[in-house]
Amino acid sequence: MKPSISMEQASKILKLLGERNRLTMMKMLEARSLCVCEFVELFNISQPAISQHLRKLKDLGLIQEEKKGQWVHYSINSACEYYPFVKNILDSLPDQFEIIKNSNVQCNVSEDSMLRK
Amino acid sequence: MKPSISMEQASKILKLLGERNRLTMMKMLEARSLCVCEFVELFNISQPAISQHLRKLKDLGLIQEEKKGQWVHYSINSACEYYPFVKNILDSLPDQFEIIKNSNVQCNVSEDSMLRK
DNA sequence: TGCTTATATAAGTATTTAATTATATAGTAA
DNA sequence: TTACTATATAATTAAATACTTATATAAGCA
Hints:
Distance between the termini of chain A: 49 Å
Mean pLDDT of chain A: 92
Structural class of chain A: mainly alpha
Order of helices and strands of chain A: HHEHHEEHHH
Keywords (chains A, B): DNA-binding, Transcription, Transcription regulation
Domain HTH arsR-type (chains A, B): 2-101
Helix content of chain A: 40-55%
Protein name (chains A, B): Metalloregulator ArsR/SmtB family transcription factor
Largest interface: A-B, 29 and 29 residues
Oligomer: homodimer
CATH class of chain A: Mainly Alpha
Number of domains of chain A: 1
CATH topology of chain A: Arc Repressor Mutant, subunit A
CATH superfamily of chain A: Winged helix-like DNA-binding domain superfamily/Winged helix DNA-binding domain
Strand order of the largest sheet of chain A: 1-3-2
Number of helices of chain A: 7
Shape of chain A: globular
GO molecular function, one term (chains A, B): DNA binding
Strand content of chain A: 5-15%
CATH architecture of chain A: Orthogonal Bundle
Organism (chains A, B): Fervidibacillus halotolerans
């Protein structure tokens, strides 16, 4: 009883994932959750472009945001009904963990600074 | 050692599959190979639109054509290097076999008519 | 308060895309 | 040959899309 997804839903998701930057973002989020400012460093597109990609992914429920002060962290929404479908695809893609690591991106917000509030 | 596909290649394929008609075509071809004239009956778009979708799928190597007289039959190209990636996605989609069957499409070319040549 | 930083939204633009209609190509059959 | 059928290609168009710059929002800090 695999197909709990309609062709309509599947094509919408695949269209979202069919954009190189968004696909890479999703795979990166599989490695760890990331802040918008980290994405801005990782990609060669403007900050608004990043925001717009993230919004589209969020609109379909594939990712979720968590606001931490002025920072916004995004993560995979594994509770999404389409998550198994998406996960299955992401699992076939080359890992992005090293790329994140090598780029040394890091969001300035620390647990410390949040606790100090 | 799963990821034998690059992000670039993956996003191209997902972009192709991200169009509802093309995705449905691919899933139908998983059920059985189909003639262009059958696709024309199955979809509510023009014959040139069908041809153009098929060409895009063929250009990436996902499907192959076999000419039988004036008819052209298309089938999944399971020898394509991206086939495992594609198959994995198609397996998550609702079966289209009943839809093909219920529509009663049938290509006029028969083995007989070919043999009589 | 005003200044800075992080993010989102608005507006505009160039490119891509999926469709259409019209036409070309090619096989079959009279 | 001519006519018919199946398919592909060309040309066009409308809509979608991915980006940009400019601006708005909102939080943190002097």
